UniProtKB/TrEMBL annotation, chain A:
GO molecular function: L-isoleucine transmembrane transporter activity; L-leucine transmembrane transporter activity; L-phenylalanine transmembrane transporter activity; L-valine transmembrane transporter activity
Family designation: Belongs to the binding-protein-dependent transport system permease family. LivHM subfamily.
Protein name per UniProt: Branched-chain amino acid ABC transporter permease
Gene Ontology CC annotations of this record: plasma membrane
Organism per entry: Kitasatospora indigofera
CDD domains tied to this protein: TM_PBP1_LivH_like
UniProtKB/TrEMBL annotation, chain C:
Transmembrane segments: 15-35, 56-75, 90-110, 122-141, 153-170, 191-209, 221-241, 278-299, 306-326, 332-354, 361-379, 427-445, 476-496, 516-543, 550-568
Protein name: Branched-chain amino acid ABC transporter permease
Chief place of localization: membrane
A GO CC term assigned to this protein in UniProt: plasma membrane
Organism of provenance: Kitasatospora indigofera
Annotated membrane topology: Multi-pass membrane protein
Record's keyword annotation contains Transmembrane: yes
Subcellular location field: Cell membrane
Key words, A-Z: Cell membrane, Membrane, Transmembrane, Transmembrane helix
Domain of life: Bacteria
Entry GO MF terms: branched-chain amino acid transmembrane transporter activity
Length: 309, 409, 605
């Protein structure tokens, strides 16, 4: 167990990535009760937006300049795609049966994947993403690769900004009101359409930050990367209590930790030697989800809602 | 009222015309094919032509196409022209099986190259076997496909006589890598990782068997999801295990980031894999790949004139996609079918017999020629007899030959 | 929304009608000319007096347009095609014909590289079909009044000038609307005649579907799909489909029997297994979709991992099939294997459902989604190294033997009535029996006390529980029943494909069956109906399969089609009557219509 601090660090870093993407799911769900399946793909196009910016920069640009520019480009692309999707695909379906937007979301996710696959140069295979060069940092017994520094700095800043925005600004409070009761909020003069667009945009921006972090971390982006990560992030959002932004981050961290610890230690538990390691980590994450839902059906930080049909 | 009846009449006339015309078209068609001087036979191709494995699939298709074109140019089989019919299986068993029935139903199809995936092969083997249609896979590595489920315990039995492959099985590559790591590289503690897919898990299992037999220690085993790109938890385990090498059974899309994250986590040990990672993309995806190792089937291109010719011809043919990992094997597979047809035609007095499929299966079993990947011939299980392997290492962002040899078993 | 009956192009109605009919007949006639000079285009359209491939479609479309136009003259013997009256059907038919003809022209130009490859016949087809559309636009059509339109929606400019122009054309120039017309009471026919009509209708249906499945190249299938879509829409407008529906409702047993006979007749129309293997897989996919419809459509439970139950059934059947790769060396007869598969799937359904169905709302979605993925991962892991050896991991369980039912070997060819039925025909017919069982279960349960309770839960769980319905128990029943039916289909699937491997059971892939496609089949087809998922599944199976010529763009096209279809018909192709009323009549104009929302938000900002 002497590598526990390292595994905790691994889990938390991965979890922060999940959490950033989960915020997009949770905000959209909290306001329009829509599982935005295409959110994973919004994350993916953000990564490709950032990559495009990097490729457009002259060779030899210092990463201190390149990373912020990539971030801006990623956010721009993700947000545009998300807002466009809301306007053209989801909004016309707001009075349709509850499951129709879900099919639209699945369709959208296929379309976005295929657009990148077919039209982005060389995107049929993974594209190389820049990494922050240099040896990993050693802090006591914990090794952290340089590229993860971006995520370690960006995730808390994003959460602080979002917390301030939702609690303090006029738009943020409009968002809270809409999520509690859209009809009343509308009667109170809140432009609910704008609030919905805002929720999509913020979620997309966070996804783009996560995409840049992911690219730096793994050194690549590919057109399928949104699917698995989106699934995990959605699980994180439910785990934390869907509709709650802090819950999303907490759920992400919990999920990341659970995966890391399950990979490392389950097989050392007597009688479980066959059921541990990387092969079973997703199964254990799923078990965690079921257990949490049984004990706290509303998720870790969710509020008990009488009826969310 | 007048124009109304005119309309009705004209409709009736059109209807009658079109019905009567049907017959004449069929007759014409029949005349066309009978009048041809040479027979045209089809080589079917089944591979994923769309989706994320399409790069490999298109490489297979183009290589077969190249073989067919060259056979026609050289008039390899006098009196017989070849064409290809490429079908897309999207790497799934069910569409693969439907393609198999489609190829069987087409009487001009005389042999099939494919598929890429073992699971697809499993759904096709019986169909082709029932139709006596020869099938040569350029990429399947699962041993059980040709030697039966009990091959590991020594009772080998060939389930389908129409199934062949030019790719080597896992039972060759894994042990060869084990011998190299233990004897040549002197690595005695290996951490074993695989991606749970047929190819990767098979390689890892055969590697483990040989490596422990030689006296090496497996200090840990891990399995990854092939779609995962985050391996930090596993990298930490490798680092704490004290291994001095990692053997990875799987393909480069996961192997690249895995090797990179190992080094990012501070474990500066080489990663070794099979031909699934011996690709330029592995190096591209992994800036810290220096020293990583891979085995590949056949002699290095520089020592094999047939391979150099294939590469030059492929480039000259101007295909949009690269030939990728399985291009050479696919070319050899197609050429094996062509050679089989040649033998059948020769035995039948220069003409293709009425029902050639069964005879082609028998002929392919006996063929032997120098192909792109070395000598091509098949043993009693339909597996390639080519057991020449080469170990490559990454040196200055390119794969460099480390050692060539023949696997003794 | 106010409506009017006016032509788009103001011309005398008589002239427009004659013009349309003549143009339609002329269009049909162009099918007899050569459209291109070379036989390189699939189908070989170079013959005079002998239509082929896409030309048949133009011919059919032209004739349908002509017949519908003539029917409005009141010609005896044709009137039945247009019982409701109104001219929108004619316009749709003409549009469909024009779309097919122009699709053919464009396909020829693209395939052969240039418009120069067209013969005058091709140009003539394009011209006459457009003339027919022009003529139809001169007929009085059901439209919205110009002053009932809101402000133009400039958001469409984002979709480019062309996108905006198309949007403008459809919503502001054509302004087509739906006017409910009372169908005049049908002429009383003796019941044998009505039965004959039903049988004739299903025979036409069988012919149309067989044509679709047998299309040999993607261009023909696309044209077929275009024409079929427009024709069905046109016949719905003219009221013919409602007539037919009324007939089938009146003679339901006959209609059901005719439908199944038509389906059973399919293998007898085939000369090889080439398309029956496709049909057998369609049937598996459709049956599973129907099972999912119990869960999603009736009980309103969102299941995103349904394909896992198919997998459980398939794995259970494979394990007891006697395959040499199965660690359990037993060979059950089919009935026992089917029961095993169904029971195993049901057990898993209960295991997953019991903890999660106590919760309300969308939690089930993530749990089922997770279960679908976990199933695949677990099947991969139970390989002897990372778990007990049950499934052989990613190698799966291959070499599953063919079924023997009462001494009848389904893997062999048999002669039935002089027609040779191959392996896949046998499995197709077996699967058809299973489909019939599922349809029966669906129909009986759906109309029972339990089915009504499910619908009550779906609509409002709180209210339903207040009425004394045990929500949890009934939801669990729906979930377990759905799982059980999928497991049953899985047992056949295992034998058809000879192998079960974990990678066949995923959430989303390019081809069905997978969970996303299953759900799409249910929702696209129509939730809560029997024919909806069957139609949806057939389309979702055939479209990606037949659009191979689009190669790498086929999935893209499919995704776009999903989005557009949901936009046009959110209630599905075949809507539950109640849903249709709910979603097409803006009874509650509240937040649904954006126009209404404008003043409200203005006041607030």
């Amino acid at each position: 167990m002497h590598d526990l601090p390292q595994q905790l660090a691994n889990g938390l870093i991965l979890g922060a990535l999940y959490g950033l993407v989960a915020i997009g799911y949770t905000m959209v769900y909290g306001i329009v009760q829509l599982i935005n399946f295409a959110h994973g793909e919004i994350f993916m196009v953000g990564g490709f937006g950032a990559l495009t910016a990097y490729l457009a920069l002259p060779g030899g640009t210092t990463l201190w300049l390149a990373v912020p520019l990539m971030l801006i480009a990623g956010i721009l692309v993700s947000t545009l795609v998300a807002v466009g999707a809301e306007r053209f695909a989801y909004r016309p379906l707001r009075s349709a049966p509850r499951l129709a937007p879900l099919i639209t979301a699945i369709g959208l996710s296929i379309v976005l994947q295929q657009l990148v696959f077919s039209f982005y140069p060389d995107a049929k295979k993974a594209r190389v993403f820049p990494k922050i060069p240099g040896d990993p940092f050693e802090l006591a017994s914990v090794t952290i690769q340089r590229s993860d520094i971006f995520l370690i700095i960006a995730a808390p800043i994003c959460m602080l900004i979002l917390g301030w925005f939702v609690a303090r600004t006029r738009s943020g409070r409009a968002m809270q009101a809409t999520s509690q009761d859209p009809d009343t909020a509308k009667l109170m003069g809140i432009d609910t359409d704008r609030v919905i667009v805002m929720a999509f945009a913020i979620g997309a921006a966070f996804a783009a930050v996560a995409a840049v972090a992911y690219g730096l971390r793994t050194g690549q982006v590919d057109f399928r990367m949104g699917f698995i990560l989106g699934l995990k992030a959605f699980t994180a959002a439910v785990l934390g209590g869907i509709g709650n932004i802090y819950g999303a981050m907490l759920g992400g961290l919990a999920l990341g930790l659970a995966e890391g610890l399950a990979t490392a230690y389950i097989q050392h538990i007597p009688g479980m030697h066959l059921f541990g390691g990387g092969a079973w980590k997703d199964v254990w994450a799923f078990v965690l989800l079921i257990v949490v839902l049984l004990v706290r059906p509303q998720g870790l930080l969710g509020e008990r809602v009488a009826d969310r049909a | 009222m007048r124009h109304r009846s005119a309309l009705v009449v004209s409709i009736a006339v059109i209807g009658a015309l079109s019905l009567s015309a049907c017959g004449s078209r069929d007759e014409k068609k029949a005349g066309d094919t009978a009048g041809g001087a040479s027979t045209t036979v089809t080589i079917g191709v089944d591979a994923p032509l769309t989706g994320d494995l399409s790069a490999l699939g298109l490489g297979i298709k183009n290589s077969v196409d190249l073989a067919v074109k060259q056979a026609n140019e050289k008039n390899e089989v006098p009196g017989v022209k070849f064409q290809i019919k490429a079908l897309d299986d999207t790497a799934k068993p069910a569409p693969g099986q439907q393609n198999a029935t489609q190829l069987v139903a087409d009487n001009s199809v005389i042999g099939v190259v494919g598929p890429l995936n073992s699971s697809v092969a499993q759904s096709m083997q019986q169909i082709f076997n029932d139709a006596n249609l020869v099938q040569i896979s350029p990429a399947n590595t699962g041993v059980a496909l040709s030697q039966g489920e009990k091959w590991a315990t020594g009772t080998k039995a060939r389930p389908f006589k129409s199934y062949f492959r030019t790719a080597t099985t896992d039972a060759v590559q894994g042990p060869f890598a084990a011998q190299y790591l233990f004897k040549d590289a002197k690595k005695t503690k290996v951490f074993l990782i695989d991606d749970q897919k047929t190819y990767g898990a098979g390689l890892a299992a055969t590697f483990k068997g040989e490596y422990t037999k030689l006296g090496g220690t497996i200090v840990g085993e891990e399995h990854v999801n092939p779609d995962d790109r985050d391996f930090s938890a596993i990298a930490t385990k490798v680092k704490t295990s004290g291994a001095d090498a990692v053997y990875y059974g799987g393909e480069y899309p996961a192997a690249g980031p895995l090797s990179l994250q190992l080094k990012d986590a501070g474990a500066n040990i080489p990663l070794m894999g099979g031909d699934g990672i011996q690709s330029g993309d592995f190096i591209k995806l992994n800036p810290k790949s220096q020293g990583d190792l891979a085995t590949a089937v056949g002699l290095p291109v520089e020592q094999l004139p047939t391979a150099a010719k294939f590469i030059a011809d492929y480039a000259a043919a101007g295909y949009k996609d690269k030939y990728e990992t399985y291009g050479g094997y696919s070319y050899d597979s197609a050429w094996a079918i062509i050679q089989g047809v040649k033998a059948v035609v020769a035995a039948n007095g220069g003409k293709l017999p009425e029902k050639p499929r069964e005879k082609v299966v028998e002929a392919v079993q006996k063929i032997s020629f120098d192909g792109v990947t070395g000598k091509v011939s098949f043993d009693e299980f339909g597996d390639t007899t080519n057991k020449q392997l080469t170990v490559y290492a990454v040196k200055d962002a390119a794969w460099a030959v480390e050692k060539s040899g023949t696997f003794a078993g | 929304m106010t409506t009017e009956i006016t032509p788009v192009i103001p011309v005398p109605e008589r002239a427009a009608r004659v013009f349309t009919a003549l143009a339609a007949v002329a269009t049909a006639g162009t099918a007899l000319t050569a459209w291109t000079w070379t036989a390189d285009f699939p189908g070989d359209l170079t013959f005079y007096g002998s239509p082929a491939g896409l030309q048949w479609l133009t011919l059919t479309g032209g004739l349908i347009t002509a017949v519908l136009t003539l029917a409005r003259y009141g010609i005896p013997g044709l009137r039945w095609t247009s019982p409701a009256g109104g001219n929108n059907g004619i316009l749709l038919a003409a549009l469909g014909t024009a779309a097919v003809s122009w699709f053919a022209i464009i396909a020829i130009a693209v395939d052969l590289g240039g418009l120069a490859n067209l013969e005058p016949g091709g140009w003539l087809a394009g011209l006459t079909s457009l003339l027919a559309v022009t003529g139809a636009l001169g007929l009085p059509l059901d439209r919205r009044t110009a002053d009932s339109l809101g402000k133009p929606n400039y958001w469409w400019l984002l979709a480019g000038v062309v996108g905006y122009a198309v949007h403008h054309l459809i919503t502001r120039t054509l302004r087509l609307a739906k006017i409910e017309r009372k169908l005049p009471p049908a002429r009383e026919l003796p019941s044998w005649a009505e039965v004959l009509l039903i049988i004739a209708a299903f025979a036409v249906g069988l012919f149309a579907i067989t044509f679709g499945i047998d299309t040999e190249y993607g261009e023909l299938f696309t044209g077929y799909l275009i024409l079929a879509g427009f024709t069905v829409a046109a016949l719905a407008k003219t009221g013919l489909l409602q007539r037919l529906r009324a007939l089938t409702v009146k003679h339901r047993p006959v209609a059901t029997g005719a439908a199944f006979s038509a389906a059973a007749a399919f293998p007898f129309t085939q000369t090889s297994d080439q398309y029956t293997s496709v049909a057998a897989n369609i049937l598996i996919f459709a049956t599973v979709a129907l099972g999912l419809n119990i869960v999603v459509g009736l009980a309103g439970l969102l299941d995103l991992g349904y394909v896992a139950f198919l997998g459980v059934g398939a794995y259970a059947a494979a394990l007891v099939s006697g395959s040499p790769a199965s660690p359990i060396h037993v060979a059950f007869p089919f009935w026992a294997a089917a029961l095993t598969g169904a029971a195993a799937a049901m057990v898993f359904g209960v295991l997953i459902g019991a903890p999660t169905l106590r919760l309300r709302g969308d939690y089930l979605a993530i749990v089922t989604l997770g279960f679908g993925e976990i199933f695949r991962i677990t099947m991969n892991n139970l390989n002897g190294t990372t778990g007990p050896n049950v499934t052989n991991g990613s190698n799966g369980i291959p070499r599953i033997p063919d079924l023997q039912i009462l001494g009848f070997d389904l893997g062999k060819k048999h002669l039935v009535g002089g027609i040779e039925l191959g392996r896949f025909s046998n499995y197709y017919l077996l699967m058809l029996i299973i489909t019939a069982v599922v349809v029966l279960v669906f129909a009986r349960v759906g109309n029972s006390r339990i089915g009504r309770a499910w619908v009550a839960i779906r609509e409002d769980e709180t209210a339903a529980e207040a009425m004394g319905i045990n929500g949890f128990r009934l939801k669990l029943l729906a979930f377990a029943l759905g799982a059980c039916l999928a497991g049953l289909a899985g047992t056949v699937q295992a034998h058809v494909s000879y192998t079960v491997t974990p990678d066949q059971y995923t959430f989303a892939e390019a081809l069905p069956p997978n969970s996303a496609f299953l759900l799409a089949a249910v929702i696209l087809g129509g939730m809560g109906t029997i024919s909806g998922p069957l139609v949806g599944a057939t389309l979702l199976f055939l479209i990606p399969k037949k659009l191979e010529f689009l190669s790498n763009y086929q999935l893209l096209a499919f995704g776009i089609a999903l989005i557009i279809l949901m936009r046009i018909r959110p209630e599905g192709l075949i809507a539950n009557r109640r849903n249709q009323l709910e979603f097409h009549e803006p009874v509650i104009p509240a937040q649904s219509a954006p126009e209404d929302a404008v003043p409200l938000t203005k006041a607030g900002a």
